[in-house]
Amino acid sequence: MSRPHDCTRGSVSIEAVVVIPLFIAAMFAILQGSLWVYASSVAQAAAQDGVRAGTVMGGRPESGQSTAEVILQQRSAGVDWGVDTSSTPQTLTVTVTGYAQSVIPGMHIHVHESATLPWEGQSR
Predict the structure, then answer these.
(1) Number of neighbouring beta carbons within 10 Å of residue 96
(2) Domain that holds residue 33
(3) Tens of pLDDT, residues 14-42
(4) Backbone angles phi, psi at 14, to 5 degrees
């Protein structure tokens, strides 16, 4: 009696060759997305704390910028951070820009966050 030909022989190997790289790519994408979310939240926190420090009674835009820079250095959530302040007679804006850390070589994900508050007390 002859055995019927099994047409699924070796299919597990072929499926593994296709599925495992897709799984690894998905894991890297999730990790990269997490790093971007973390860098964005740190940049937003630095901008908010910087604008709060700059707008307190007697505060200056320079103190807001230095506060944001200190937070970015402590958390080291990204690279090439830049902090910019701009003010009007009514408000102060602190803007933080940079790039999230990358696990994928050559990938540069831009982060841009800003916060604006009115001056405490009197306008400038």
Answers:
(1) 29
(2) 11-118
(3) 888 889 999 999 999 999 999 999 999 99
(4) -65, -40
